[in-house]
């Protein structure tokens, strides 16, 4: 390995795998259950315990620690020129209920290990380095949204995973709702954001790849479709005289699969929730309500899919006589990674001898928000069998360490090569 910023280091050392394993063990013991799952909901006692462990570890190592008003923990290591915007890495420590050991936590552990590596080898980057734990990623995303300023001003819009308000929750972790605007940072405050994360999918494993460089995080559009027919007796109503809402909905659902497959190779569309009324074995369904979730890295592709689905709904309404109504739920625009960060991290990964691919992220992450205000890239390591949000989530120590090495070397590379050149979003 070459450490471009290793000014005082004659013999560069590799990262410490034993310590990485210890950190994985320490964090996964906080909120652990017997089957190996981890429950560390945002703002819970377990979340706070893990956050305190992070802060103590890096404070003892000599980093400056602060909590911003959005509840993000920011650990800062000085560079040669502390007036330069920092390189930032990090992820989240909160989990879904009965989640895994690696989702989010690996990106935080990577930051800790890199801080240890730099301090132990007496390496100072040109730029300051910030390691951030973003608050409540799995639920409200208050941390990353507070960081970018892209959040609702109405506290009731934040549905928390406990019964407490966002105001109370934020104060539990050292944030402050009333001052939340002071957490906002802009492009000039951050040079680049890099997040190491487990893939939570099977692309890397199926492709025999060690590392994935994420070229963007897909956008998402969610709509609800309500099909209204006529509930009637399942025995006495002849087949020729029915207004079956489920049958009409089924025709739409079958069409959605074709639309997703033919709009773009990468597009996905899912009907994941369906409710029938009256939902009885001996009654023709009078109403079917279902959701459609559409995702792609290209906003235009999502737009095209959405339009084709709307046209299909009108067609089915005409053919079946059922009334089909569409209600938009929400829309998230895609976040593209910074091309220069993608090529730098790809290059560093290949230099380390890892089989490397480029792929989009189809799940949302803190990077999705942070990438809206500054150059961003994510580095993925494989998830065994593509499983995540489960006690079965597993990434081997070697795979975790590979990701940390790529992250470290990319940080060195951009710290050296982009000292007086901008990275563009
Ligand atoms: Zn995550």
Automatic annotation (TrEMBL):
Keyword Nucleotide-binding: no
Peptidase M20 dimerisation domain location: 217-315
Keyword list, A-Z: Hydrolase, Metal-binding, Zinc
Cofactor(s), names only, from the UniProt record: Zn(2+)
MF terms in GO: hydrolase activity, acting on carbon-nitrogen (but not peptide) bonds, in linear amidines; metal ion binding
Protein residues bound to allantoate: 222, 282, 295
Family matches, as Pfam families: M20_dimer, Peptidase_M20
Record keyword Cell inner membrane present: no
Binding, Zn(2+) 1: 92, 103, 197
Family the entry assigns: Belongs to the peptidase M20 family.
Protein's name in the database: Putative N-carbamoyl-L-amino-acid hydrolase
